């Protein structure tokens, strides 16, 4: 992948994931909408960031019609992480994905562990399992948050770039690898809340309409407080979500259920040589 490919890569992933959302949308969820221009711009920034730091992990496939597939992977400490993987709808299931994933995996040579957020597409699950990943089903809680059930959360404060050492230290304890340079782009794109207590520490990046984008903590109590803080940022009109909840993170299911949200299944956490991190709600992109 070259820097000039990023806009076409964004369009391809937008198209591929929208087609997947339409194909797999649970019947009582709102109709999926195409990626907005604001989200597309954020997506291009993230892709350019990965390409800058992990050029060797970013691959595209093309034919005479142009770009038809992309796989982008990064290395953080000794963990290989797949950020995105899509083949153009209509051209899927013909082996393009296998070649792309093999190229992205080769960037992980020397990495002990690997992780990625797998969609519910059976073709993706097949590729990842054949590449040796263990698939841990994921849950998602969604719906409006019952505001009258929000607890008073103490000793959680707004975070800033000055907290990056703390964030990296929590990352290493929870998932065995710091997010490192990813905190630069995350702190510029999301509100950050931090808990730094003698009893435990952690942080959460909060979605603009509430709910966690990424949350990590050294114990469940701290994680639950941070999750409540992220849910408190939602409004009663707009539903928000707690995504990427593995069975080991039952504390998050308990918070979401107390908040009156509905539980569904959604995709997999795919891991190599590691157990599902806990307490941890990964982002789909930076994990
Ligand atoms: C996941 C994805 C990138 C894989 O790319 P691809 O080109 O379709 O992958 P491949 O053709 O190399 O491999 C697909 C495998 O699934 C098999 N397959 C095809 N249709 C299938 C189906 N309906 N159910 C199960 N397996 C299927 C293929 O035979 C192939 O297996 P094989 O190599 O053993 O023959 C692509 O399907 C895609 O973009 N899906 C939508 C977006 C998505 O889910 N991305 C992954 C995000 S984590």
Fold and architecture overview:
- The protein has 287 residues and is an alpha+beta fold.
- The chain contains 8 helices and 12 strands.
- The protein has helices at 6-24, 37-53, 96-106, 122-130, 164-175, 182-189, 220-232, 250-258, and strands spanning 58-63, 66-76, 79-87, 113-118, 134-143, 157-158, 191-197, 200-206, 212-217, 240-246, 262-272, 280-281.
- A 7-stranded mixed β-sheet has the order 1-2-3-4-11-5-10, with helices on both faces. A 5-stranded antiparallel β-sheet has the order 6-7-8-9-12, sandwiched between helices.
- A hairpin with a 2-residue loop joins β2 (66-76) and β3.
- The model has no long low-confidence stretch (mean pLDDT 97).
- Residues 16-17, 20, 85-87, 92-98, 118-119, 121-124, 126-127 line the site of coenzyme A.
**How many β-strands, per DSSP?**
12
Mean pLDDT: 97
Ligands bound to this protein structure: coenzyme A
Shape: globular
Features:
globular; five-stranded antiparallel beta sheet; binds coenzyme A; single chain; 287 residues; 12 strands; seven-stranded mixed beta sheet; alpha+beta
Summary of the model, kept short:
This protein has 287 residues and is α+β, with helices and mostly antiparallel strands. The protein is built from 8 helices and 12 strands.
